[in-house]
Design brief:
Elements (H helix, E strand, L loop, with lengths): L1 E5 L6 H7 L4 E6 L11 E4 L9 H7 L3 E4 L5 H11 L5 E7 L4 H7 L44 H10 L5 E6 L1 E3 L9 H8 L4 E5 H5 L4 E3 H14 L5 E3 L8 H12 L4 E5 L28 H7 L7 H14 L4
Parallel strand pairs: 1-2, 1-4, 2-3, 4-5, 5-6, 6-10, 7-9, 8-11
Helix pairs in contact: 1-8, 3-5, 6-9, 9-11
Length: 324
């Protein structure tokens, strides 16, 4: 199978390319310093330059295009316009941020709390661009790109603006060595500094969040590439959506932490989970859970790396880069 990956050199993408090594893979990306993977063809260009590569895309004649990096309708439209004539199927990487429960979590949706795991058919957010008004959008803010982020609009382009069959893969919070958001580092740092107490707001301690280790995510995406049924959306997450307090304890076991968790009132900001995208006003009574029955039953997905091993690898990677 000939696979063209748009992106493919980042935290998740490098693992996806590795998981697809049995196939003929071409990676289209803008970074000349990322030419490290053997047996992979690299095409260097930005998303805006996709049109210039149309003759080469026709030569490659990909069976599947995996779009790792479309963040909104503008990005998705460039992929569709420049590759829709040469590909048999798109596999598009999305996220759980599309679900209405994410809007309730952020405080931008007025729907009632629903803590059932989100299925692929669950209601989507009604308010678009979920981070606008919640983070500074000035160009000097490193997170300003989130102001134009909306995977709902990205998905809509693939559903409505092309006749090419597609799959959508919705991801949870992804962790592992090389995570650019360093999601575990705040907890690991405190534990390694012999901090005997970690404080959590009471609601935050009970909050359940869908998570997955990066190599398991790559394996799931590869399965969708190889076996995905056209038109299907697939949720991916670990089956153990630990409450945050249990997640902290799982991390602590790998660190060798002997401390404890203390609970604060929900009004005390000192007990918020240390995740940068979560603005003030986040409602931790709204869980972010995934139902992953479809990908498990239809594609035979199972984690290839157990949670203990995944956390051990992540913690060890952080230890190697002390101080952080």
């Amino acid at each position: 199978m000939r696979v063209l990956v748009i992106g493919g050199t980042g935290f998740i993408g490098t693992r996806v390319v590795r998981a697809l090594r049995a196939h003929e893979v071409t990676v289209y990306h803008p970074n000349p310093s990322k030419l490290m993977q053997d047996n992979v063809r690299h095409l260097l260009g930005s998303r805006e330059q996709l049109g210039a590569y149309r003759p080469i895309f026709r030569e490659i004649d990909p069976d599947i295009v995996v779009d790792m990096v479309s963040r909104n309708a503008v990005d998705a439209r460039l992929t569709v316009q420049n590759l829709g004539e040469v590909v048999d199927r798109f596999v598009v990487i999305s996220s759980g941020s599309v679900y209405r429960n994410y809007g309730v979590f952020l405080g931008s949706e007025t729907a009632e709390i629903d803590n059932r795991p989100a299925q692929e058919s669950s209601p989507l957010r009604r308010k678009l661009y979920p981070y606008r008004g919640l983070i500074p959008c000035e160009s000097d803010n490193s997170k300003a790109w989130l102001c134009d982020f909306d995977k709902i609009l990205m998905e809509k382009v693939f559903k409505e603006e092309t006749t090419v069959p597609f799959n959508i893969v919705r991801l949870p919070m992804v962790y592992g060595p090389g995570d650019p958001d360093h999601r575990l580092i705040p907890y690991v740092r405190r534990m390694l500094e012999d901090d005997s107490i970690i404080f959590l707001q009471e609601s935050a301690a009970r909050w359940r969040n869908a998570r997955a280790y990066v190599d398991n995510i790559a394996h799931a995406i590869a399965l969708v590439v190889e076996r995905g049924e056209a038109g299907k959306v697939y949720n991916v997450a670990e089956p153990q959506d630990f409450p945050e307090e249990e997640w902290v304890c799982e991390i602590g076991r790998q660190v060798g932490w002997r401390g404890c968790i203390r609970y604060l009132s929900d009004s005390d900001p000192g007990g918020r989970p240390p995740i940068k995208e979560f603005p003030e006003g986040t409602n931790f009574r709204q869980h972010l859970r995934f139902d992953t029955t479809r990908i498990r039953q239809e594609l035979g997905y199972e984690e290839i790396v157990p949670t203990d091993t995944a956390l051990e690898a992540t913690v060890q990677a952080y230890r190697k880069h002390l101080p952080f």
